[in-house]
Known about the structure:
Hypothetical Protein Ychn, Chain: A, single chain, alpha/beta, globular
Amino acid sequence: MARSLVIKVTAGMDAPERCNQAFTVAAAAVASGVPVSLWLTGESAWFALPGRAKEFRLPEATPLEDLLDAVLTGGKVTLCTQCAARRGITVDDVIEGIRIAGAPTFVEEVLAEGAQALVY
């Protein structure tokens, strides 16, 4: 079975370098052919909404919108159920291709054979 990468990003505009690192690693892994699952939790939950990634700015970094598009094209992006609920985000609000799922799905992905997990 191929190795996969599960990345959980908790940071958003409150910690831009940590946030960007997670998206950069996810996009680089997708570009390398690695199966990627990127989880948006905490403040990164806002990036599941249309236009929010475009608002993110970090000098010398690839635009977050481009990184998110790359992951959506070649991997999976999931918005945490509880994080969405706390922010009033529903399935009708999120970017097409982003799913909303909870801890059981995260645990299942992390425990899958060959999976590696990173938390930012």
